Amino acid sequence: MSNFLEPVDVCGCGDEGYLSIRTLPVDLAHGVGQIHRVPVYHCRSNTCPEYTVPDAVSRRLEVLAEEMEAEHSSEKEFSWPEPHSRNRGRDRDLSGRGDARESLVQAFTLQFINREYEDARVVFVTPGQTIFLQSVLDPTEFYLLRYEPEEGAADAKFSVSKFYADEPILDFAGFTAGEPDGVYLKELALLALDEVEDALLDEFGPVKG
Fold first, then answer.
1. Alpha helices of 27-180 — where are they, by DSSP H?
2. What is the pLDDT of residues 15-73, one digit of tens each?
3. Separation between Cα atoms, residue 209 and residue 65, nearest integer Å
4. How far apart are CA 7 and CA 124, in angstroms?
5. How far is CA 165 from CA 49, 89, 171, 187, 205, in A?
6. Contacts of 86 (CB under 8 A, 6+ apart)
7. CB atoms closer than 10 angstroms to residue 169
8. Which of 67, 131, 150, 204 could form a disulfide bond with 145, CB atoms 3.0-4.6 angstroms apart?
9. Residue 135 CA, distance from chain mean position
10. What residues does 25 pair with on adjacent strands?
11. How far is CA 61 from the centre of its chain?
């Protein structure tokens, strides 16, 4: 079963839900524990206590709870399992490495949900595909980090682009298929995955909170 998550689904209240991160309680044999940074869908209303846990996340939470009981721990960070491929043959090996990279990229993008830098904030994440940031200094200024899959590449790469938009609500999901009408993307850089964090800190300052 796929672990990949859609960026938008339904909140527990019935409204449109956006992928966000929460700490959730978990019942353990030795008491109540907590799992941090769990992906959930929430409507972004400050007064709404509801949320929806994706099916793939629910299955993973059960496994993590079992690990916590075995370790007799009360707190854990949410994580997907490390991908392992025991397939033989070059084609299967390449496929396994590709799946591993896709899982790595999704986990990497998920950690940016709700993140705020000194000069920018993350406003939308499409897991495994895109990260959007909005400038704090100029609300019409946006930055797009997009995963650029390349068959056979040793490292995952992200393109970094800048664009301006006056619309208060953009169809961010539309960017996964290309460049929406009326939006001009100016590409700034192509970064390896392990260069992204430092580049964002250099550009936007330290992470808040």
1. 55-71, 90-110
2. 988 888 889 999 999 999 999 888 899 887 889 999 999 998 999 999 999 999 999 99
3. 27
4. 8
5. 31, 48, 11, 16, 23
6. none
7. 6
8. 131
9. 19
10. 34
11. 17
Local structure of 154: helix, strand or coil? coil
pLDDT in tens, 61-84: 999 999 999 999 999 988 877 655
Computed over its alpha carbons, how large is the radius of gyration of the chain? 18
Q: What single-letter DSSP state applies at residue 208?
A: P
- The 3-state DSSP class for residue 187 equals strand
Q: What count of other Cβ atoms lies within 10 Å of the Cβ of residue 206?
A: 9
d(Cα 99, Cα 60) in Å, to the nearest integer? Answer: 18
Distance set, CA 5 to CA 46, 57, 58, 127 (Å) = 23, 9, 12, 6
